[in-house]
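Exercise 7. Given the encoded structure of a 77-residue chain, write a plausible sequence.
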């Protein structure tokens, strides 16, 4: 492979990758945010209770930190 072909082989993908970064727009438009804030879009109906259940599970199983919960090992935090 000649040096010129090698440079072209590296330059074409680099130019294509950089061209994708030229026009950065927000993914969520301001008028679309009302739809994303709808309660139907939440993962759970009661996130506080779900966090408590995860914390108790982590305390009992000794798997603290595996799911992002915090606190001690006795389940009292």
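Solution.
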């Amino acid at each position: 492979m000649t040096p010129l072909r090698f440079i072209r082989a590296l330059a074409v993908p680099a130019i294509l990758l950089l061209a994708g970064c030229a026009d950065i727009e927000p993914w969520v438009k301001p008028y679309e945010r009302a739809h994303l804030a709808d309660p139907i879009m939440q993962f759970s109906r009661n996130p506080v209770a779900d966090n408590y259940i995860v914390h108790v599970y982590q305390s009992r199983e000794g798997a603290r930190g595996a799911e992002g919960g915090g606190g001690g090992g006795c389940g009292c935090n």
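Remark. Residues 29-65 form one domain. Students should compare their own answers with the one above.
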